[in-house]
Amino acid sequence: MNIFLQLVANGLMLGGLFAIISIGLTLIFGIVKVVNFAHGEFLMAGMYLTWIITVGLGLHPYVTVLAVAPFLFVLGAMTQRFLIQPLLLARDDHVQIFATVGLSTALINLALLIFGADIANTPASGLRAPVQIGPVRILEGQVYIFIAAVLLVIGLQLFLSRTQTGRAIRAVAQNRAAAQLMGINVDRIYVLSFGIGAACVGLAASLVAPLYPVSSTIGTYFVLTAFVVVVLGGLGSIVGAFVGAMIIGLIDSMAGFYIGSDLREAVVFGVFLVILILKPSGLFGTRVSLSHIS
Amino acid sequence: MQRTETFAPPAARPVYLRPAALALATVLAALFLIPVVVGDAFIYHVFITICIFAGLSTAWNIVGGYAGQLSLGHAMFYGIGAYAGMILMNMGVSPWIGMFAGAAVAVVASVVISYPCFRLHGPFFALATIAFLEVFRVLALHFRDVTGGAMGMMIELKLGWEWMVFRERLPALVIAYGMMLVCLGVAWAIREHRLGYYLVATRERESAAKAAGVQTVRVRLLAVSASAALTAMMGTFHAMYLTFIEPAAVFSLTFSIQIAMFALIGGIGTIYGPLLGAVLLVPLTEIARGALGAQALGLHGFVYGVVLLLVVLFMPNGIMGALSRFTREKAAETPSQAGPVVSMPRAETRPPLGAEVMRVEGLQKHFGGLHVTNNVSFTLREGEILGLIGPNGAGKTTVFNMISGFMRPNGGTVSVLDRDGKMHQPVSPGDFAALGVGRTFQIVQPFASMTVEENIMVGAFYRHPHVNDAREVARETAHRMGLAPWLHAEARGLTIGGLKRLEVARVMAMQPRILLLDEVMAGINQTDVRRAIDLMLSIRDTGVSIIAIEHVMQAVMSLSDRVIVLSSGEIIAEGKPQDVVRDPQVIEAYLGKDFVHADH
């Protein structure tokens, strides 16, 4: 029983991690309607920046979010402005896919050029210390990640529903042309949204870095799971991404114990394929079939 | 009747082909001769790598380019071939046999994987292929008894042609070069024949392709199978060439992206684009890697990524696209698109109406609680023109969708007379096409990147499987529809009137027995309406039955033998056109109650 509870706790903590990484991805897709294949590399960039600042200035990793989130906001906004925006009217979607795939390839290898193939460890600052909660034992850093993910979901929902900018973003997400006719600067909203989505990854990077060593390929490792989470939750749905992350976290944790740790990923991707094929709109997605969005 | 021969197609084709063919021959010859003449081991290695990537990328292009299914998981077929060859070789089976075993497994895998994924498009198809690739990688790591797991597999060193392993470089180049030629040959054969046209049509507009009788799932599965088989065979050879494989390197996303990238850079969907991409990029990065070695870890990947970004931004159709724009510049001045519909000679006497060719009984369709079609029944006779009119939202197009297989009715039956004289109840668009039912779409569905001629050919292929016959029919049809001046223009450049005519031309090229026309007169000028009416009458006189949804009353009145009026999903009137337009119920449906007595 204790093992089972421990597995559930691990699953939820893993879910928190997946959630905080995936929220930016689903936000960008929901609004700009672009699947950002370079999302994982945004995370990688943020984690390297966290590492540089913590090691260089001796700051607590969480403090670096003040620099990392704005840095990623700019990176995301520039990606939208200079890469995606010129391609929004492209008649084939392969152009948009290759654009972010190309960005991803360039960033991974740029990191390899700069930092080499060695992994970089961000000082843990006590965040890897275990905490005993009842019968289960989890890492302190994991708890903060989980809390941050919950707060981020609530914060974004409030922002999107209560503020004028948030309403404009939702309008653009629902009908680009109509929003434009209502006097909303659609291009600006897209740049802003991409920036916010990337900034969310910046937050994730600062929180994740003390727990996971950084390498140039860390993005690929996380982003594939993030895609699973986001499709499961319904692309574009923030709450969906959170719930999806919890489900995938639990599946990952259970499969790792009961099926075998080396087959974990196969199970997760198996679930992903089943959802993609049977219910591509996900748990919380709109009823629009994904095959018509591109 | 005027037969204006001034619109002869530009005779530039063979001339334009010659420099291209020359360039291709030069590239192919250089690929073989340079390493042989130089004789340096490193140069050999670079050219063998070029051949392998050119072959892989060409094979990928059959799916990613022609069919437009953007696979980023093609390394799984490569990996299947590599492991099949390696495992069998270590069991004492020659890779020449292992190659075909791998190809067979890859074909099965590709069909099983692709079939459920075809409803996914663009990024979602790409994501699904990535996920499958990951599953393959994890499984290859897991079953270490078979694959050697993370430790990888090494071939037992057996030299000679039988084992595909050589100490000297020339034989390896011969094999790589030969396999690349096979890939190019297959890609060429597919693109230049009916299958290629069908693939591109399916990519551009799936429903229009279905209406033209294309079995879209079948053609895509054929493409995927061919692509997977070629990729697996290249994989077997590459494994023998490398002598060592491991899951991380073989079932690799980066590798899949590279394969796709050469095609994009060279020109996605073109026959020789992938070759061009590999020829230009592989030496660049191989030489950088050779010269800088481990210092430049990541450099070649960075170059790939940046080149990809630049190509996407500034040359989205790749090098081939840029080249063809250059050569097509001279044909840029397109004539005005208000070209005449050639009037057709009419038979003196009209043949009498024949037997019933279509019978619709008690058709029902509802979306949730909304009844869009309620108990609609009618018949159509051979050589008859039936007008289908009604106010907006009456459910006319829904009826069309149900009598062409695009929508399943909730109740009722549609029966179509076959050539054998029996009534059949077709289900899918393919079944309807097979019985000779052709349709147009109210919202035009051109195959945008194909030329007008190619668009019509897709229809013509239904009766004429050979390219030359289909082209002949397409030209003739284009001429009848007044589209001859734009035969070689891309369909996306046509005006709405031109596109409407293209819809009709495509379906006419299928030589249907029953023609369903959805508002084909909307948006064309008065003169053309009259010509179109004459055209339809001449089609009718050849024994074709027509059902036409039309708002142009002039056309409805002068064309229709009978008119059916649909309102809120029900038939409210039926009869001769002159009678129907006086029917008070019809006037009420169109104009409201107040107008019913207006002219009394």
TrEMBL record, chain A:
PANTHER family tied to this protein: AMINO ACID ABC TRANSPORTER PERMEASE PROTEIN (PTHR11795:SF445), BRANCHED-CHAIN AMINO ACID TRANSPORT SYSTEM PERMEASE PROTEIN LIVH (PTHR11795)
Membrane topology annotation: Multi-pass membrane protein
Family: Belongs to the binding-protein-dependent transport system permease family. LivHM subfamily.
Superkingdom, natural source: Bacteria
Pfam families linked to this entry: BPD_transp_2
Organism classification: Bacteria, Pseudomonadati, Pseudomonadota, Alphaproteobacteria, Rhodobacterales
GO biological process: amino acid transport
The protein, known as: Branched-chain amino acid ABC transporter permease
Species per Swiss-Prot/TrEMBL record: Cereibacter changlensis JA139
Transmembrane segments: 12-35, 65-83, 95-117, 143-160, 189-212, 218-251, 263-284
Keyword presence, Cell membrane: yes
GO molecular function terms listed in the Swiss-Prot or TrEMBL record: transmembrane transporter activity
A GO CC annotation given for this chain: plasma membrane
Location of this chain's protein in the cell: Cell membrane
CDD domains listed in its UniProt record: TM_PBP1_LivH_like
Main localization of the protein described in the UniProt heading: membrane
Keyword entries, A-Z: Amino-acid transport, Cell membrane, Membrane, Transmembrane, Transmembrane helix, Transport
Automatic annotation (TrEMBL), chain B:
Residues making up the signal peptide according to the UniProt record: none
GO cellular component terms attached to this protein's record: plasma membrane
Molecular function GO labels: ATP binding; ATP hydrolysis activity; L-isoleucine transmembrane transporter activity; L-phenylalanine transmembrane transporter activity; L-valine transmembrane transporter activity
Lineage: superkingdom: Bacteria
Sequence intervals crossing the membrane: 20-38, 44-63, 75-93, 99-118, 125-143, 170-190, 221-245, 257-284, 296-315
UniProt keyword list: ATP-binding, Cell membrane, Membrane, Nucleotide-binding, Transmembrane, Transmembrane helix, Transport
CDD domains per record: ABC_Mj1267_LivG_branched, TM_PBP1_LivM_like
GO biological process, one term: D-alanine transmembrane transport
InterPro entries: AAA+_ATPase, ABC_AA/LPS_Transport, ABC_transp_permease, ABC_transporter-like_ATP-bd, ABC_transporter-like_CS, BCA_ABC_TP_C, LivM-like, P-loop_NTPase
Location(s), subcellular: Cell membrane
Membrane topology: Multi-pass membrane protein
Residues in ABC transporter domain copies: 358-593
Protein name according to UniProt: Branched-chain amino acid ABC transporter ATP-binding protein
